[in-house]
Structure formats: C-alpha cells, structure tokens
Design brief:
Shape: flat
Strand content: 15-25%
Number of helices: 5
Largest sheet: 6 strands, antiparallel
Radius of gyration: 29 Å
Oligomer: single chain
Order of helices and strands: HEEHHHHEEEE
Helix content: 25-40%
Structural class: alpha+beta
Length: 265
C-alpha cells in the first residue's frame, strides 16, 4: 500500500511538472508571437509613412512648393518621423542617348586611361545599338567570347544603369564610380563636356526649379529618398525615381513612378 501511494505521488508530481512546463512553453510562445506581431505592425507603419512621404514630395514638387535641391525636409506623423531628400537627375548622363565621345569624357573624368575609356565607351554604344557589327570593327559577339562571356550585347537600350555591368570591359568598381553621374530616365540633349562639373546632360532650358524641355515636354526627373523612423522604433527607407510633367496633356499623367525600391541600410 505504501509503495502504491508513493508511486501515485510520484505520478502526480510528474504530471504537475509536465503541466508547468507546458504552461511556460505556451506563455513564452505567446510573448514571442506578440513581439513579432508588434514588430510587424511597427514596420508596416514605418513603410506606410515613408511611402506617403514620397507622394507628398511629388505633390509639393508639382505645386512648386519644393525644389529638387537635396535639402533635408522632415515630415512628422503620429507613427513616425520621415526625413526626405530630393535630387534632380536632369544633369545626369543618359547612356542610351549620349554619343561615344561624351561617354569617353565621363570615363576619363573618373580616372580611366584614355585608350581603355575609348574602348569601353564604344562597347557601351555597341550594347544599345542594333546590328551585329561593333564600332571597333568585327562582330560584337566575338569581343564577349574572347573574354569567356557566354552572352552578347542586347542590341537595345539599357533598362537600368546596373545593366552597364554586363558590358564587356566594365567592372563593379568602375560602375560604382560612374553610377552617380548616370540615369536612363534623363530626357533631352547633351550639352555639357565635363561630367564632374555637374553640367553634363544639362539642357539649355533647365530652370532653377529643375524643369527642362525633354522629349515629352517640360519634365522633371527626380530621385526621392524618404527614411521613416518609427515612434516605437525601427526604420524603413523608400527610394523612388519619378518623372513629373509640368503641363501634362489629356493622355498623360502628371507624374510617373519609374522605380520604387526599399533601401537596405
């Protein structure tokens, strides 16, 4: 009888211990899920604040209240504080339109040797141009095969600045050096000669507010960066390239969002 009572007591203690362990596990899991849910809500609030700030910036640019001068502007909301910077792309070089000589000038301005700059500028023009023949003579594809690349030029305009990284002779380090001076969204004629002066790509009709005469009328192409810092912590950064039209026609929207990216800091 004593043994049976001892076994029963042991069974009760084991059961109580198991129940306590399960309660602890459930409590811990509940707290973790609550934290995850709270973080998700905070991140969503920060993202919404940053996205909303980009659209505020677009509206104020269209209304002439703001200009694309890279000044720091701050919008405060209940859920987050958003820092906004707007940079014009009007003075950037468009690799889809620039002549080889202008591209060569950009490359030499960032320290590339003249002969290599000329070769690479020709390869960039080859990439965007139709036809199998290279400006340097011979077939384009042979230049790529000779260095072990298993692809050929696209024979069409670059979809992004990053695509220049595929051009034969281009390296990640070199692309990083010239990327701040490039944009595939800039419209208009090239009139500058010195890429580092800030005038390359500047059209003669660009006004102080950033509007200039592009191929689709009076336009402004800007990069908007909005960084939201949450009232409850966390941050989210939205970066967008936007083309605005000063006097849109009936079949044109007043603005067009060209890129929409979340920036990982």
């Amino acid at each position: 009888m004593t043994r049976q009572r001892g076994f029963a007591l042991l069974l009760v203690l084991w059961t109580m211990g198991l129940l306590a362990l399960l309660v602890t596990q459930f409590t811990t899991t509940g707290r973790t899920e609550s934290l995850v849910a709270a973080n998700a809500r905070a991140n969503a609030a920060n993202q919404a604040a940053a996205d909303g700030a980009v659209h505020v910036a677009i509206l104020r640019l269209l209304q002439g209240q703001w200009v694309a001068d890279t000044s720091l502007r701050i919008i405060r909301a209940e859920s987050a504080t958003v820092e906004i910077r707007i940079a014009s792309q009007a003075t950037r070089l468009n690799p889809n339109m620039a002549p080889a000589a202008v591209i060569r000038t950009l490359l030499t301005s960032v320290g590339i040797e003249s002969g290599k700059a000329a070769s690479l500028a020709g390869a960039i023009v080859d990439w965007r141009s139709a036809g199998p023949k290279s400006l340097a003579g011979g077939l384009k594809i042979l230049q790529y095969r000779s260095v072990g690349l298993d692809y050929a030029p696209a024979n069409k305009y670059f979809d992004s600045v990053e695509e220049l990284g595929l051009v034969v002779g281009m390296t990640p380090a070199l692309l990083a050096r010239i990327k701040p001076f490039l944009s595939v969204y800039q419209e208009g004629d090239i009139s500058g000669t010195d890429p580092l002066s800030g005038d390359l790509g500047q059209t003669s009709s660009t006004d102080r507010d950033g509007w200039y005469l592009g191929s689709t009328g009076q336009v402004m192409v800007v990069e908007v960066k909005a960084e939201a810092v949450g009232a409850k912590g966390g941050r989210f950064t939205r970066q967008a390239v936007v083309r605005l039209r000063k006097e849109p026609s009936l079949d044109q929207a007043p603005y067009q969002i060209l890129t929409w990216e979340a920036v990982q800091e």
